[in-house]
Design a protein that fits this description.
This protein is an alpha+beta fold. It folds into two domains: 199 residues, Ribosomal Protein S5, domain 2; 176 residues, GHMP kinase, C-terminal domain (Alpha-Beta Plaits). Helices cover 40% and strands 22% of the residues. It is built from eleven helices and twelve strands. The strands form two sheets. Strands 1, 2, 3, 4, 5, 6, 7 and 12 form an eight-stranded mixed sheet that branches. A four-stranded antiparallel sheet has the order 9-10-8-11. α3 packs across α4 and α8 packs antiparallel against α9. Its EC number is 2.7.1.6. One of its GO terms (molecular function) is ATP binding. Catalyzes the transfer of the gamma-phosphate of ATP to D-galactose to form alpha-D-galactose-1-phosphate (Gal-1-P). It comes from Microlunatus flavus. This is Galactokinase.
């Protein structure tokens, strides 16, 4: 479904003409650094081989018509429909990109677009950011716009925050836009400074299992926003711009100033998670990927106990993966469902996935899905 050939063929049938090009943007896995992005902290994601792929060509009537192969739906909207709230559902991510570009002062040409995706939706792998970044990459080129890669990520984030209404940080869109193959992206979410970090798991005899528990989650729901508001209130009480400004050396003093245990645990997660990201970058730079395993385990414990964003399916998957031979494992993504990642011996992902599937069956849960996560390139034209 998510191939250049499939979207191009549907484009031809829909429009009677050839697409001007085909563009793609990937989903992402966050290796470590959860809920640190909107706290001005650090993250370490990498782009996946799974992507949203999109065939497109300009229209002369100033409207945008988009066909989703996954949804088997077609939506059309014009300039009058760009006000937030006028377009909803999956098409809001397309209209929101046009809106964000327009709000930034760019003239966006109308277009026909056909898209397909093999990024699992609702799994914490940023299918929405992949959609935004694929659409944005295509429209920027079709409209002849000069928008730097980091600015593209920021515009896609603005689409998600202000048009769709999901209070995410910059992590997802930056990963989908900026990542390079065989690398993770170290991103400072305050300054937006970033660099590629080598991630050659195969050379160390390792691979990264990505397992979808098929417990859907949504960033638009209240829990994600509640965590963000708690962090912002804690930063206000502590007199700092963001929790990124609290270091491990001063964590105990900071916690003593907070009014309740819930807020203290939220802060402890963010501060220790930032420290884990920095340690993970040093490990990757040194070419010691096996040493990432304890950081994955510690991150999961922090998300489970301090930030309270895991769910029983996710915890069972992590525990089972470790028992089945994973060196380390954790939930990845915003939480309340979605995926886990596990660092496993090369060639061992299927055995670990089968063990989790058996544990899920015993517990009465649905069957999970899994694949090997391979660090891949960000948004680009593919034909």
């Amino acid at each position: 479904m998510a191939t250049p050939e499939a979207v191009s063929e549907t484009f031809r049938r829909m429009t009677g003409r050839e697409p001007e090009g085909v563009w793609a943007a990937p989903g992402r896995v966050n290796l470590i650094g959860e809920h640190t992005d909107y706290n001005d902290g650090f993250v370490l994601p990498f782009a996946l081989a799974q992507w949203v792929v999109l065939a497109a060509a300009p229209r002369e009537d100033g409207t945008w018509r988009v066909r989703s192969l996954n949804r088997r739906q077609t939506e059309t909207f014009g300039p009058a429909d760009l006000e937030p709230g006028r377009v909803d559902g999956w098409a809001a991510y397309v209209a929101g990109v046009v809106w964000a570009l327009t709000e930034a002062g760019h003239h966006v040409r109308g277009a026909d677009l056909v898209l397909g995706s093999d990024v699992p939706a609702g799994a914490g792998l940023s299918s929405s950011a992949a959609l935004e970044c694929a659409v944005l990459t295509a429209l920027v080129e079709l409209s002849g716009l000069d928008v730097a890669p980091l600015d593209r990520a920021r515009l896609a984030r603005r689409c998600e925050n202000e048009y769709v209404g999901a209070p995410t940080g910059l992590l997802d869109q930056a990963a989908s836009t900026l990542c390079e193959a065989d690398h993770a992206l170290f991103l400072d979410c305050r300054s937006a400074e970033n660099r590629q970090v080598p991630l050659d798991l195969g050379a160390a005899g390792l691979e990264l299992l990505v397992l979808d528990t098929r417990t859907p989650h949504s960033h638009v729901t209240g829990e994600y926003g509640d965590r963000r508001r708690a962090c912002e209130e804690a930063a206000r009480i502590l007199g700092v711009p963001a929790l990124r400004d609290i270091t491990l050396d001063h964590l105990d003093d900071a916690l003593a100033q907070l009014p309740d245990d819930v807020m203290r645990r939220r802060v402890r997660h963010v501060v220790t998670e930032d420290a884990r990201v920095l340690e993970a970058v040093a490990i990757a730079d040194d070419g010691r990927p096996a040493d990432l395993a304890p950081l994955l385990d510690a991150s999961h414990a922090s998300m489970r106990d301090d930030f309270e964003i895991t769910v029983p399916t996710v915890d069972l998957a992590v525990e089972t993966a470790r028992a089945a031979g994973a060196h380390g494992a954790r939930m990845t993504g915003g939480g309340f469902g979605g995926c886990i990642i596990a660092l496993v011996p090369e060639g061992g992902s299927d055995a670990v996935g089968q063990a989790v599937a058996a544990a899920f069956a015993d517990a009465g849960y649905g069957e999970p899905a899994w694949f090997v996560g391979r660090p891949s390139a960000g948004a680009r034209r593919v034909s």
